[in-house]
Amino acid sequence: MPCGVAPRFLILYGSQRGQAQSIAEEISEQATEHGFLAKISCLSKGDKYNLDREHGPVVFVVSTTGDGEPPDTALKFVKKIKNKSLPGDHYSHLHYALLGLGDTNYANFCNCGKTIDKRLQELGAKHFYATGHADDGTGLEVVVDPWIEGLWEALKKAFSRMSDSNQEGTAQGEATEKSTQQGAEIQEKLDSSAVSLHLLKLGDVETQKEKAETSASESETTEPSGAPLEPALIRSVPPLSQSALNVPALPPAYLEVRLEDVPVEEVGCSVHVLKEDFREVPVSRALHLTRDDAVKSAILVELDIADQDMPYQPGDAFDVLCPNRASEVEELLSRLGVEDQRNRCVYLQLRKDTKKKGAQVPSYIPQKCTLQYLLTWCLEIRSVPKKAFVRALVEWTQDSREKRRLQELCSREGSADYNKFVRDTNVCLLDLLQTFSSCSPPLSLLIEHLPKLQPRAYSAASSSLCHPGKVHFVFSVVEFPACAEHPERTGLCTGWLVHHVSPILQPCGTITAAKKTADSGHTFPSRISNTFHLPSDPSVPVVMVGPGTGVAPFIGFLQQREKEREERQNGPFGETWLFFGCRHKDRDFIFREELERFVENETLSHLKVCFSRDEQDGNDPEPKPRYVQHQLLLHAKNIVHILLKENGYLYVCGDAKNMAKDVNDTLIEMLGNELQLDKLESMKMVAKLREEKRYLQDIWS
């Protein structure tokens, strides 16, 4: 590459679980190919950058977490720019682009990105490129890939404009323009040559023999019966199978892995190494809440925390750290050809020749851990491989047809196939390795691309006032039916939980607690995170919406309120409404007896239930509501009065994909009908409730 001063820009990311960071790093890695120099930093590291003096372009990549909140790494930055004392021209010198990450299955889509974007505009900053909002509900890459592709031209134009207008930096401007022109000339030469960095044709990467094999495979478009072939994970059909492909650049390798024998006493393998704030908590009880013929089983687990310093409030979430499935770890060890090295210690270090900027050895992998431990407790081996990982696997695949198919799946042209056969079907690395048998990646590639094994959060379904020294939570076993891409399996954590408690699991209807004490084998690595609480003022009315296992935190709320009422019999307590729904009244109406007791002793003012699969009584003049949102509409006047006239709180817990969306839409409809508002005004009122933290969600997808 010709010498020159490469134009420099800054990349800032705010990430909760690594998505935004990964995308920011991808932008940084691609920058060099396009003739730029990128400096990258986390928003939390304020000592690494200074936007008050930043005159080059800035690219923000930020995710959203929780109920539309900024990720932990962006909290300080958001608070800083929200300072009302900042003048309106504080960032008038700043030119930026922003890529927000979110999930439309949740309310407040891309809220952190939108918040930063809006505030920067208010402080005088200017866009040099259109803001992107990527949706994890449909696939981040649908927006991320074209957004990054268009970024480079936008940066060239931004540098050109800044060069023309910056009188004080003429010399630097000339160097920048020259470098940009040189970069463009290089790219032009590459585009005109037989080999392109991004447009890979079969003839560019295969031998003549492989060409012939691929050509033969492309002609095989019908089954032996004469029926046309259908696309699948392992194969494509025209036009994709005959298309030239825009394949992303190969992610740079950055880790070296050594496996060495170490004396047993020196092996540092403990769950506590991973998370010092996790505790091994014994299980004292497990109970089926649903009948055997329920469509989904719900299980209550009681943890004994009497000997732990783990105070909690109703609505808190308990993070449970579960291991990867032993059988899957075993299969992966075998597939990688390292099953005989499972007890050797893993040593990681950065490659000296790596081109990855800011490369670091993963901090979540403890020193002197065994290979078995690493695959069991450190890496999310069930995660859906991202396109960058699929791209890296191409280099370790021998069969030309398999290599071509992996190229298709990570290409722009193959996005629909990637979504259909990888993302939407929850394909994991093992599924890919079973399908693409000639792919043999090294261990280092897995560590570079598999994310950290994350804990799973479960809401407390109890109050410590009612159950001192205990905490309850409820879960349903997640099931993934067998399909062409993978065998039948259960959710990683819920499958592990049900297996874990099976020796002490009691049938539905059991009243007394089990007499047996769970031994040391029945423990969970757990910790508490604060999220979802009752108002501090008990006189404030609350409305709770929790179908299915979404009712769990509200059981804790009502247990707490029941004890508070016993302690302060003459105290003021606000109304409590609970909207609950399930499929069948007799099969899966969980906590029925307890809820009816709450109604009887007036802890719960109103219990509204609905059963979506029970047959309707033909003699009823009006059909009964099937879902919680229908019940809400029937009581719209009361709910709107509570929220707007009594400053009440609305809590929603459960499924994000359907229920939470439907409840949100119903709330907008209720406000519009009761107050005679148009939809936009109703949406603004809902947004205001969220801002005031009086409309709270604890939802999952």
Automatic annotation (TrEMBL):
Cofactor(s) it depends on: FAD; FMN
GO cellular component, as recorded: cytosol
Biological processes annotated in GO: homocysteine metabolic process; methionine biosynthetic process
Swiss-Prot/TrEMBL keywords: Amino-acid biosynthesis, FAD, Flavoprotein, FMN, Methionine biosynthesis, NADP, Oxidoreductase, S-adenosyl-L-methionine
Domain Flavodoxin-like: 9-152
Native source species: Astyanax mexicanus (Blind cave fish)
InterPro entries assigned to the protein according to its UniProt record, in alphabetical order: CysJ-like_FAD-binding, FAD-bd_FR_type, Flavdoxin-like, Flavodoxin/NO_synth, Flavoprot_Pyr_Nucl_cyt_Rdtase, Flavoprotein-like_sf, FNR_nucleotide-bd, NADPH_Cyt_P450_Rdtase_alpha
Region (Disordered), start-end ranges: 163-186, 206-232
Regions of compositional bias (Low complexity) in chain numbering: 214-223
Protein's recorded name: Methionine synthase reductase
GO-annotated molecular function: [methionine synthase] reductase (NADPH) activity; flavin adenine dinucleotide binding; FMN binding
SUPFAM superfamilies attached to this UniProt entry: Ferredoxin reductase-like, C-terminal NADP-linked domain, Flavoproteins, Riboflavin synthase domain-like
EC number(s) recorded for this UniProt protein: 1.16.1.8
Matching PROSITE patterns: FAD_FR, FLAVODOXIN_LIKE
Domain of life according to the entry: Eukaryota
FAD-binding FR-type domain: residues covered: 276-526
